[in-house]
Fold this sequence. Notes:
Blueprint lengths: L1 H11 L7 E3 L7 H5 L8 E2 L3 H4 L11 H6 L2 H10 L4 E4 L3 E4 L4 H14 L3 E3 L4 E6 L11 E2 L21 E2 L8 E5 L4 E4 L2 E3 L14 H8 L4 E7 L3 E3 L20 H6 L3 E11 L2 E12 L4 E2 H16 L4 E6 L6 H17 L8 H10 L7 H7 L4 E5 L5 E5 L1 H9 L1 E8 L7 E6 L17 E3 L13 H30 L1
Parallel strand pairs: 1-5, 11-22
Antiparallel strand pairs: 2-4, 3-4, 6-9, 7-8, 9-10, 12-21, 13-20, 14-15, 14-17, 15-16, 17-20, 18-19
Helix pairs in contact: 1-14, 10-11, 10-13
Amino acid sequence: MAAYHAARALVDAGQAAQVTVLEKMPRPARKVMITGKGRCNFTNVKDWNAFSGHIRSKANFVKSAFYNLPSQAVVDWFESFGLETVVERGDRAFPASHHASDVVDTLVNACLSLGVKIETEAEVATISTEAGRQLPSENVRQSRTLPTDCVSGPLPLTKPRVATVFGGDCLPGFSVKLVDGREWKCERVIVATGGLSYPTTGSTGDGLRWAQELGHQLVPTFPSLTALVPKGYKLQEDKDLHIDRSTPLSELGQALCGVQLKNIQLALRIEGTDVDSEFGDIDFTDGGLEGPVGFQLSRKAVKALVNGSRVSLQLDLKPGVDLTELTVRVKAIWEEIAKDPRSRGVREKERCRILLGKLMPRELIPGFTAMHPEIITVERRGRADTKVWVNLVSIAKALKAWQFDIAGYVGYERAVVTAGGVSTDDFVAKTMESRIVPGLYLCGEVLDIDADTGGYNLQLAFATGALAGRSAAKSLSIKTYAEETK
């Protein structure tokens, strides 16, 4: 999106400058291909007032970018290039085909239509300013350098180099060196590399490293919109908070994996205090607790875990009724089962299973009973005489407040987005240009901006990318005009 809008602005201004995308992977937009489980929820059509409430950091910073390319304008843009779209529940926009590849093809073809060059398998090693065009030393200051522990996660940081910072109207020009030895010279650079999430798509934190090397601050990063792993869910051998998704499931994890729950209430508790709550759907997967509601709460949960706090989730399977009403309902269902002729001779444990089947999906029962042994009491009256009691009040309480203590989280290997990133304090919100290195622009997830699941993050990526592209092209056009009239 940055490349397209840069090329569009240059064409409209009658400039002949070339826009080139240096793509690390063999094919462009690999991460877009897997968004929305391959369906690509490419934006959310809420207006700013509603949209901004779903931005988890720096909402004011991206306001200009959003108005520069609102969500409906993104929909219109894709449709102008022939992509049919649909808007589904929650104002989420998808390609009508529900194929993410159609979104990628549209982006690529739009760029190619304006002469953008897309160089694949062009992995950038370093970005540096052209040394021969610096200002005198009195107008140069050294960059800030940060300790290597300012970024959490597997980011391969190198020792920050001293970066030159230009003032006034000096525009340094850049040298972009590739790992294969090639070098590109350019007047403007836009970094649109994403963060650390899904490294198999090419997102390995390169943009964070380049920004730091050029003197920018980094806000500590951590996985967001990721699976939270309850205690006892995985066969975890160590105490590391990052629990790889490939870690085998425990017996409890196997009992819960694959269960999907709709219209539940999930509360996040940190150090025993409720800090957030969401209504909606959750999924138990091979990673842990996910789904829309799980993802929404994961950002605060992961941040708290990283900071050393105790974190738990409290699941309310019956949010539409209070505990008193639910207890009455449970007792009434139990009496109905007892009066049913089919229940004659059926043991208490089996009757309990029948009861639970009327209160929750049957596939949830094994996991529920495993985590709530208190719902059945066995009274031994003699060597061969035992009495089984089903604790109906305990069942009602468990339905309303099923607690999961959280042991850790799935890391960047399957986190939807990266929270944290390059500090937005170092960039101009109206242009996405660096305050430290003029001519350098950052956009999307490489910056310290992230949002909820539901099309919000891609909208922010497209909007900030479009603004960065237009701004870079506009500054180049102004510079060229000034040189011609000098």
